[in-house]
Each structure stands twice: as C-alpha cells, then as structure tokens.
Amino acid sequence: MPDAARPPRHVLILGGTTEARRLAAALAPGATGRPEPAGVPEPAEGAEPVPSPEPALRVTTSLAGRVAAPRLPAGEVRIGGFGGPEGLARWLREHAVDALIDATHPFADTISHNAALAAATAHVPLLAVRRPGWVPGPGDTWYQVTSLDEAAAALPALGSRIFLTTGRMGLAHFAHLTDPWFLVRSVDAPEPPHPPRMEVLLDRGPFTVEGERALLRTHRIDVLVTKDSGAAATAAKLTAAREAGVPVVVVRRPPVPDGVPVAADPDGAVNWLREVFSEAGSH
Ligand code: NAP
C-alpha cells in the first residue's frame, strides 16, 4: 500500500534516446505520453501501455547537453555531466534516488559504466534499457567492425563516396582519409578534425526509405557507415543500401557493463520498477 506520509519515490533516467523519452512519458505524473514523430513505431497495435508502478513518482531525466535544442521529456530534466562516477553517486544520494535507469544510446559507453559504478556505490538499483541491435538479412552486404578506427581502415578497399552516419563526435577517426569523399549526416554541425573532402547534412531522424534512397542516388554513394544503433527511426538507410547494392560497414555495440540487468524497451523498464519497488516495500 502506498504510504501517504513518505515522499514520492524518485527515478533517475539517463536519457538522450527515444526510449528514455517514452519511459519518462509513461512514468511522470500527469504525463500524457507525448507522441513521437512519425516513423517511430508505437507499441504493437492493441497492446495496452504498461501502467506506471506508482501514481506519484518523481521522475528526472538527465541529458548530457550535447545537442543544442534537445527534445525534452516529460517530468523534471537536468542537463550536463555529473563529474564521473563519483559525481553521479553523489547526485543519487543528494537527490534521494530510489532507482536508476540507464536509457542512454547503446554507444554511450562511458556514462553506462559510470552508472554501474555509481549505482553500486550508492546502493541504488540499476537497469539498462537497450533496444535490440540490427541483424543483416538476405541481400545485405555488411562488414561488421568493433570500432570507428576499424571502420575507417576498411573504407579505402570498399568505395570512394561514403555516407557516414556515425555522428559528429567520431569524425576525427576518419580525418586522415584524404582521398574518399564523405557525406556526413549529424544533428549539429561537426567541428574539426574531420575528413577534408566532405559535405555536411544537418538532420535528425526519423528518416524514410524514400529519402534515404534519394540521398544514395543523388550523391552516388558506394559505401554506408553506421553504428548498430538498432533504432527503427534510423533503419531506413539499411533498406535503401540493400536495394541499391551498397555495402554497409556496421560498428558493433560495446557490451552492457557486467551484472547490469537489461530491458529491451520502456515497458520492460516499467515492469522492472514495479518489481524493485514491491521488493523494497514501504520505506
Ligand atoms: P558517453 O561518451 O558515454 O559519456 C561521456 C560523458 O558525458 C559522461 O562521462 C558524462 O559526463 C556525460 N554524459 C553522457 N550521457 C549523459 C547523460 N544522459 N546525462 C548526464 N551526463 C551524461 O556519452 P556520449 O556517447 O557522448 O553520449 C552523450 C549523450 O548523447 C547520451 O545521453 C546518449 O544517450 C546520447 N546519444 C549518444 C549517441 C552515440 O552515438 N554515442 C547517439 C545518440 C544519442 P560526466 O562523467 O561528467 O558525468
């Protein structure tokens, strides 16, 4: 039974993803769950949204502050780094956080490790939300690599007009490639170092197959480079590449830190919270 005398339980979501915004919309009191833009698949038709484990949760989402105009989630929002795992552990204690959910991007490796350390230090239960990765299908020509450096090393043998969709932060890994031409797509403008021959396309998903087809054709792309983000909103480029016979260099994900339980989607995270809170009982 909820105890009227105790303050609402506090959930901290490490965000920056569609899943984090969906989770905040599902949990934050009074939130109606703002619709995501077209192209982002909703839960299966007929599926009931999983109800929040408690009606009066306090929900804070943390954003790194990388994007100039981020899409803001429901509930409270804080922006900027914590100052390493120690800073995050301090924040958890000072703000009386009852559960931590790492819903960051699958490639945001540092903050995920910081979350694991901080949660252990502050004795706060932690869950990672990780959407499933992409898998190659018939007709795909994928070269799977484990880092941006490996992707860069593979490129000269594969093509000379490269569509690079790995984000502006990793461009330095390709800066030494002076011969190929790059189409670089990012949310905000990249800064040097970057490859000398490039055109920048400022855009953010969701993207359509028609749009991606047109990009490949117009720019005569002969290789696509992507991280295995696994997001539906950015999967259209893989379909367009398959159709056009364009090979894809896919950077595989870093693993989730040891011992951290994983949910594949926001509903899984809500169910995990319910279990955690019922085990904890009243304060
Ligand atoms: P990262 O390399 O794992 O983290 C670097 C540092 O940024 C962390 O040590 C932390 O600083 C701070 N940070 C990262 N995420 C944070 C968050 N949600 N709230 C507060 N501080 C955060 O992270 P990244 O790959 O640069 O990604 C940054 C953000 O962009 C993440 O929120 C992620 O979800 C989002 N994002 C990343 C990608 C990608 O491809 N990496 C793609 C789309 C969105 P302190 O040590 O000072 O705490």
What does this protein look like?
The protein has 283 residues and is α/β, with parallel strands linked by helices. The longest helix has 15 residues, at 266-280. Residues 33-46 have low confidence and may be disordered. The protein is elongated. The strands form two sheets. The protein has a six-stranded parallel sheet with strand order 3-2-1-4-5-12, with helices on both faces. The protein has two domains: 9-132 and 256-281, 3-Layer(aba) Sandwich (Rossmann fold); 142-251, Rossmann fold, CATH 3.40.50. The chain is built from seven helices and twelve strands. The chain is 27% helix and 19% strand. The protein binds NADP nicotinamide-adenine-dinucleotide phosphate. The site of NADP nicotinamide-adenine-dinucleotide phosphate has 25 residues, from strand 2, helix 2 and helix 3. Residues 14-17, 62-64, 66, 81-84, 87-88, 104-105, 107-111, 114, 167, 169, 227 line the site of NADP nicotinamide-adenine-dinucleotide phosphate.
Task: Name some characteristics of this structure.
single chain; 283 residues; alpha/beta; Rossmann fold; 2 domains; six-stranded parallel β-sheet; 7 helices; binds NADP nicotinamide-adenine-dinucleotide phosphate
What is this structure's SSE topology?
Layout: E1 10-14, H1 18-27, E2 58-63, E3 76-79, H2 84-94, E4 99-102, H3 109-122, E5 126-129, E6 142-145, H4 148-154, E7 161-164, E8 181-186, E9 198-202, H5 209-218, E10 223-227, H6 236-244, E11 248-251, E12 262-263, H7 266-280
Parallel strand pairs: 1-2, 1-4, 2-3, 4-5, 5-12, 6-11, 7-8, 7-10, 8-9, 10-11
Helix pairs in contact: 1-7, 2-3, 5-6
